[in-house]
Amino acid sequence: MAVRAFGPALKHEWCLDPRITYLNHGTVGAPPRRVLTHQQAIRDEIERQPAAFLLRGLSNASFVGGSRPAVPRMRAAAAAVAAFLGARGDDLVFVDNASAGANAVLRSLTFAPGDEIVLTSHGYGAILQAARFVARRAGAVVRLVEVPYPAFDAGRLVEALTAQLGPRTRLVVVDHVTAESALVLPVAEIARRCRDAGVPVLVDGAHVPGALALDIPSLGVDWYAANLHKWAFSPRSAGVLWAAPDRQADLHPPVISWGLDQGFTEEFDWVGTRDPSPWLAAPAGLEFLEELGFAQVRAWNHDLAWRAGQLLADRWGTAVPVPESVIGTMVTVPVPARLGTTPADAARLRDRLLVEHGIEVQVHAAAGAVWTRVSAQVYCDLSDVARLADAVADADA
């Protein structure tokens, strides 16, 4: 494997606008050029024989006659992705994104009046909405466990969550990496506590594949939903849903189609006519990640995220509120207090950074402050972070 120079020297591998300092990889991802080229080749192949490709070669769902390949294309791609995640292909299906995977689990479970779904206060908003939707239809209850923040303490979180588990708790939903605060949570320990209490666990791993080393089965969870289009270099949108073997029989996709009752993988592999190219191109994203050196990419991104946090905090007179041990590839830092505390203040700063300074970065309000969440990626370096530091330091209230 050739050693690659990370930082600006690698920007040519992406289609990103060279006029923009892009520190927002974690929001919707950014697929490399070569992966997009591979995706387009798949689309071109589909258009040469659309019906044969989609109805005969893509999945095992049997709703049209004719022969099938020994390994349908969706299963071949799933096997490659599953291997990267430490899993078996038969336990993994493709979904549009992590939210779709979480919805599949939530809407496949049966809740009764008074049942409880437990999430944390730092859970992704869309997943919280899905839980509330499912709960209100059944007369169930959503309970939020407060995450200690800004003074984060993983042990306190585990104890607080465990204390919420009761005889009516039917599900715990927890992020592996929280979306806004960018905290790496101790999901294996949370899963162990929940298992001891007889409560199944759904993990939202939207920010994990390609960002952290991951062996899903070793976590001891029941379901794991994640994105490939963020850190795993897949075209968007591409997500996966892993389910433990004993959790697959009653698991259904949000869209029911011809695969119903034909088995876990068959049901998810065909939910109607759609463009399968993001999933089929996902192995190409993983190949590029391995070519760069996955361990080296993780080390670069983690180191850059941590150093970015220190640089920004020093420049703004604030502080990174959490230890390095809970930082993955993103870091969240409060901006100077004069820039506000509300979502409107955050939106105003985010827009000014893009329009006036050409800097794309996630900005949000939480815990009485406005924060920036910097995504570290191999096409960035500290000079990009320094531009953000200067732009915010010079901003008027």
The percentage helix is 25-40%
What are the low-pLDDT stretches, counting only 5+ consecutive residues below 50? none
What is the number of beta strands?
A: 12
Question: What do the pLDDT scores average to?
Answer: 95
Question: Spatial order of the strands in the main sheet?
Answer: 2-8-7-6-5-3-4
Within the CATH hierarchy, at the fold level, what is the topology of the largest domain?
Aspartate Aminotransferase, domain 2
Biggest sheet overview:
7 strands, mixed
CATH A-level architecture of the largest domain: 3-Layer(aba) Sandwich
Q: Can you count the helices?
A: 14
Fold and architecture overview:
The protein is an alpha/beta fold. The protein folds into two domains: 8-30 and 293-393, Aspartate Aminotransferase, domain 1 (Alpha-Beta Complex), CATH 3.90.1150; 42-287, Aspartate Aminotransferase, domain 2. The protein is built from 14 helices and twelve strands.
Question: How is this fold's topology laid out?
Answer:
Blueprint: E1 21-22, H1 25-28, H2 33-48, H3 50-56, H4 73-84, E2 92-95, H5 98-108, E3 116-120, H6 125-138, E4 141-145, H7 154-164, E5 169-175, H8 187-196, E6 201-205, E7 223-227, E8 239-243, H9 264-269, H10 277-280, H11 282-292, H12 294-316, E9 330-334, H13 343-357, E10 359-360, E11 362-366, E12 369-375, H14 382-393
Parallel strand pairs: 1-10, 3-4, 3-5, 5-6, 6-7
Antiparallel strand pairs: 2-8, 7-8, 9-12, 11-12
Helix pairs in contact: 2-3, 5-6, 11-12, 12-14
Outline:
This protein has helices at residues 25-28, 33-48, 50-56, 73-84, 98-108, 125-138, 154-164, 187-196, 264-269, 277-280, 282-292, 294-316, 343-357, 382-393, and strands at 21-22, 92-95, 116-120, 141-145, 169-175, 201-205, 223-227, 239-243, 330-334, 359-360, 362-366, 369-375. With 397 residues, the protein is of the alpha/beta class.
